[in-house]
Structures are given as structure tokens and as C-alpha cells.
């Protein structure tokens, strides 16, 4: 400090605030430094966060059978509603699942748009069978799907799921356990809509021992099963040697049989008797899907109109 002098008398070096550390020769200083080192040091394995069993659990692969869900559909009122409702169930089913949707004559743009937005893996097929009178369009549509599965040798469990039925999510998870052919009871609303009936197998554990039936006209059927009440291994279609089938003829649904006999004549091509069937679920203790026979009543189109693309319908609420 210079209390009696001006700032001009002071040299800049007298007020330097720079701190200059002493120069250290590292080599010279470290000569005499001894770092103790313990003998027989063993480094244990290092466990990083998110490794080991935690990571393995996230990437565990569970092998599941492919579910091949076949749905015939056609232009009618509430068709879009039915397809959306079924797709919401299929989205919740664990993969892999393939939804085979079959239309008559042409693949409509409306149906294709619905399928693209579902988030479900699908194939959109067309049944182009030219017939003036269609006794049962669903038979020919399902046969198109069966031909597709056979041609491409798709390996999985085939299930015929009409778009207007109601299905439990548990059903789709249960049919993955099927080896050859599985069946279960289906709850059906009677045509009179006054009562519900049960159609399908009577089971003892996983064994089918009898059948539920309440319709006298169908008592002559060999197997009393609804079309949505069974599923089977797809390899039966294209690998007859594996299943010791006596013939290699294509397995198809028949349109020339009496109404109500399509199911039993088709099943007779797959199994010989109840001993080759599996109960789903064991004991057939629960109803997992419903066939309601519901129609879009009161939806009347103007006379003379022919609507080729009518997936949606406006229904008066008055």
C-alpha cells in the first residue's frame, strides 16, 4: 500500500494478484513414494443396474401357437359394428394371431379400411364363386380360407369366428392348447328369443363323453357342435401323413348337405370319434362364446335400392 503516494508512483508489479504455484518435478518427488498394494487381490463380478435376471426376464421368448381366426363377412347393416367389435377382442389376444377375413365377390374398400386400422395382423380374401343362388355363403367363404391355409401351409390352430357372435378373451387363449381337435359348449339364443339353449360337448375332464342338443331336427347329427364351437390343428389340412388320414382328399365344408349338418360333415373329415377330441376348457365348465342369432331389425332401405357398399347404416331412434 502507498498511503502518501499517487497511483502513478506505484508499479503494476507491486499490485499483481496472480498466484504462481511452485514448480514441482514429479519424477523427483515420486522417487521415494511407496504405494502399498495388498497381495492376492480378487475382483468380484460387477453387477450393473438392469443386468442379469432383470434383463433376461424382459427378453424371455415364450413360444405360442399361431391362431388362425377365419371370419366370413358380407355387406349388410351393422357390418362395420360387428367387425369393430370382434377386432377389439382380437387386439387383446397375445400374438401370434392371423385374422383371415373373407368377403363375397369383391374386397370392399370399406372393409379394407377397417382391417388396416385394427392393429391386428390380417389377410383380406375374396370368394369369387359365381352362383345365382347361394345356399350358404359362409360355407364357400370358409372354403376359400381353408384353401389359402392349405396352399401356404400355415401352421397353427384354425378357428371359425363369425363377426356377429360374442367371444370371451379366455376362449382364444384356451384353444392354443389344442393338439388335434378341440370343442366346447356354445350358448345360443333360441329363435323365439325367449330362452337360451346349450349346444356342444358333455365332458369328463378333458374327455368328451356326450353332447348337448335340444333340437329334434338335428338329433341325427353325428356331432352336435356349433360352427363357432370347435377349433383344429391346421396341419391336418396339408399334412395327412402326420395324422394318419386314410385319404389325401382336401378337407372342405359341404354346401350340398341338409341345413344344420355342415358342422358335423366337416368334423367327420377331421376326427373319427370323440376319443380324438379335447375338451376346452377341461370339464367344459364355462361358456366362452355366444351365438345370439341377432338381426338388424327395423333397418329398411328405400325400395329398389341396391347398396353394394353399406357397411354403416343410419338407424332412426324414434
TrEMBL record:
Gene3D superfamilies tied to this protein: Spore Coat Polysaccharide Biosynthesis Protein SpsA, Chain A
Catalytic center residues: 263 (proton donor/acceptor)
Organism: Solanum tuberosum
Keywords of the record: Cell wall biogenesis/degradation, Glycoprotein, Glycosyltransferase, Golgi apparatus, Manganese, Membrane, Metal-binding, Signal-anchor, Transferase, Transmembrane, Transmembrane helix
Entry superkingdom: Eukaryota
Swiss-Prot/TrEMBL cofactor(s): Mn(2+)
Protein encoded by which gene: LOC102595195
Molecular function terms, GO-annotated: galactosylgalactosylxylosylprotein 3-beta-glucuronosyltransferase activity; metal ion binding; xylosyltransferase activity
Major location (coarse): Golgi
UniProt KW Metal-binding keyword: yes
Site (Interaction with galactose moiety of substrate glycoprotein): 199
Name of this protein: Glycosyltransferases
PANTHER family found in the cross-reference section: GALACTOSYLGALACTOSYLXYLOSYLPROTEIN 3-BETA-GLUCURONOSYLTRANSFERASE 3, GALACTOSYLGALACTOSYLXYLOSYLPROTEIN 3-BETA-GLUCURONOSYLTRANSFERASE BETA-1,3-GLUCURONYLTRANSFERASE
EC number: 2.4.-.-
CDD domains: GlcAT-I
SUPFAM superfamilies xref list: Nucleotide-diphospho-sugar transferases
Residues annotated as binding Mn(2+): 164
Membrane topology: Single-pass type II membrane protein
Family: Belongs to the glycosyltransferase 43 family.
Lineage start: Eukaryota, Viridiplantae, Streptophyta, Embryophyta, Tracheophyta
UniProt keyword annotation of Glycosyltransferase present: yes
Compartments reported by the entry: Golgi apparatus membrane
